[in-house]
Amino acid sequence: MMASEQQTVLDTGPQDDEEHPRPGPKGPKAAGPARRWLVPLLVVVLLGQMAVAMVTTAVQQTPTIDEPVYVATAAEYLHGQGIRYNPEHPPLGKLIVAVGVAIADPHVDTSFDGPQIDLGPHLLYESGNDPWRLMLWARLPVILLTLLFGLVVFSFTRELAGRAAGLTALALYAFSPDLVAHGSLATLDVPLAGFLLTSVWLLWRARLRPRLYVPLAGLALGAALATKMSALAAVPVVLVLAALSVWHARRNVVRVLGAVAVAAVTATAVVWASYLVVDPRLRWTSPDPLPAVHGLRGTLIDLLPFPSAYGNGMRIQFHFENYPWQGFLFGRVYTGHLWYYLPAAILVKTPLGLLALWAAGAVVVVAVRRLRPAAPYLLVPAGVLLAVAMTGSRDFGTRYTLFLPMFLTVAAGCVLALRRRWAVVATSALVLFVAVSSVRTFPYYLPYSNEAFGGPSRTHLRLHDSNVDWGQDLGRLADRLRERYPDERVWLVYKGSGAPAAYGIEASDPLKEPVADVRGLLVVSDSSVAKAKGKLAELIDGSRAVDEVGHSITIYRR
Fold first, then answer.
1. Distance between CA 371 and CA 373 in Å, rounded?
2. In 3-state terms, the chain is what percent helix, strand and coil (to 5)?
3. What is the pLDDT of residue 182?
């Protein structure tokens, strides 16, 4: 956006340079040749360190619980198998993963017709493929996409509050442990959040050029809808923002309604295109029987203008929502859902400096007059999505709220719009605090928790599942057993999708033997430790912890 355009967006009334300073540096030095290369260089440095962190993590981690089915489904797409598996998620996210899978070129057994839970392990461990190589290539497209979303964060914040604010937001984004952790996985959570942020950013730009940016925003919204069905909660918000942007630009009701229609139709077209790419003739047949969905949910499914496979996927998702999942929070094991689970998990897993800047940024975009028009674009989508996520029944992790490190980080960068020395000093100190906290957890980003809760080595005492132990450390466990315990008898209780034997781990199941016969090393995933009962609890109580792996697996001696 040109400087004049940027100022038009931000100017909402008469401004005084003292009370309402304009974004961007002042003075001749700002435009000098010595400064022209500095901002691009810092952007490259910040994204470069993030790339190193994500690639290193991707190289060292074995498949998490959700990844194998996405990777195997992507391989099915490449071999023209249509939507046979994983219908509960739309195809686009898996098509992104398929770019890397195509380069890895694994052998795919197209005759496999087993249950979905076995599809991923069959591809990784039973079809003659190298699981390390295949998983790395599958993760690389998501890593690249995560870096591109960082540019969206930078651009959005720079347009609101200047280059220094943009760099601040990008630094917070690049050092976010949650974004590094999930941006390095072949999963759908980061693409979903990033597409939604991109859609909202384009709508902000549509305040000046609606004809260009409203359709582009519809494309980004459609990409989110074609990645995960939870994006449906954002549709009303995005369409209202589209109306708000066009009203600001044109003040014409007909054009406002037309723009909303364009955004909706464009998004719908993207969803249809994602299914047609996978199965041009839409031959997918519903699994028998599909879960029955009644009431408002059933009506919603029937009204959606999407392929029948999308609606049937929603039926499966609603069935998951009705399942009595078991959760774990601050040492308490429970069945069902706690409405405050996600706020509590966010409090544990977000760097303290980032929490402070999120709060400050939210206040600034509301309180500062020239930033106030951006408040609905930053705070309303984040608030609505968080409220909807808090009603979900699956208390599994902060990966369901990755939109927060995107939207609120843009708001956090806007703190520098205050143009006060204390604000610059405080923000710089908090950004440094975030960076140090993030670097200290390298390369164990999934089990990160902030200093107030004891750091990553203590996360398993308060949270479970993808917050700490998602099956990612099977390879590290194999290395640890080989290096430190080469001749010991190993008993393993592992929570994950990996195959221990494929990584050289020779272990027995202690739950199948009498307690008295289990002697040697007892290795237990921390999520299993958190919810241990019966025989496993007895085994753990009679053992002594001697080691840990990746802050997600505990080794006991019996």
1. 6
2. 65, 5, 30
3. 98
**What pLDDT, in 10s, does the model give residues 70-103?**
999 999 999 988 898 999 999 999 999 999 999 9
Q: In what helix (H) or strand (E) does residue 556 lie, and over which residues does it extend?
A: strand 553-557
491 beta partners: 508, 522
Which has the closest alpha carbon to 6: 166, 150, 148? 166
Residue 114: CB atoms within 10 A of its CB come to 11
Q: Is 554 helix (H, G, I), strand (E, B) or coil?
A: strand
- Using an 8 Å Cβ cutoff, are 515 and 539 in contact? yes
Name residues whose C-beta falls within 8 Å of residue 134's C-beta, 6 or more positions apart in sequence.
Answer: 71, 101, 104, 106, 123, 124
For residues 194 and 150, is the Cβ–Cβ distance under 8 A? Answer: no
Q: Which token pair is 444?
A: 């164990």
d(CA 327, CA 157) in angstroms, rounded, equals 37
Residue among 122, 142, 171 at smallest CA distance from 58? 142
Q: Do residues 139 and 188 make contact, with C-beta atoms less than 8 angstroms apart?
A: no
Residue 493's beta-bridge partner residues?
524
> Please, are residues 26 and 33 in contact by the beta-carbon 8 Å criterion?
no
Q: Of the ranges 31-40, 143-152, 509-518, 549-558, which one carries the lowest mean pLDDT score? A: 31-40
| Cβ atoms of 388 and 333 closer than 8 Å | no
Residue type, 86: N
Closest CA to 383 of 344, 351, 343, 418: 343
| Other C-beta atoms lying within 10 Å of the C-beta of residue 31 | 10
444-503 pLDDT, tens digit each: 999 999 999 999 999 999 999 999 999 999 999 999 999 999 999 999 999 999 999 999
3-state secondary structure of 329: strand
Number of alpha carbons in the 13 Å side-chain half-sphere of residue 266: 23
Position of tokens 């046979």? 84
* pLDDT tens digits for range 512-542: 999 999 999 999 999 999 999 999 999 999 9
In degrees, rounded to 5, the angle at the alpha carbon of residue 132 between the alpha carbons of residues 130 and 136 is 120
Is cis: bond before 456, omega within 30 of 0? no
Residues in the chain: 558
Asked if 227 and 195 touch (Cβ cutoff 8 Å), the reply is: yes
Say if residue 302 is exposed, middle or buried (CB neighbours under 10 Å; 0-12, 13-18, 19+).
exposed
Distance CA 60, CA 55 (A): 9
Check if the beta carbon of residue 278 is closer than 8 Å to that of residue 95: yes
Three-point CA angle 341, 337, 384, nearest 5°: 60
Q: CA 508 to CA 271: how far, in whole Å?
A: 46
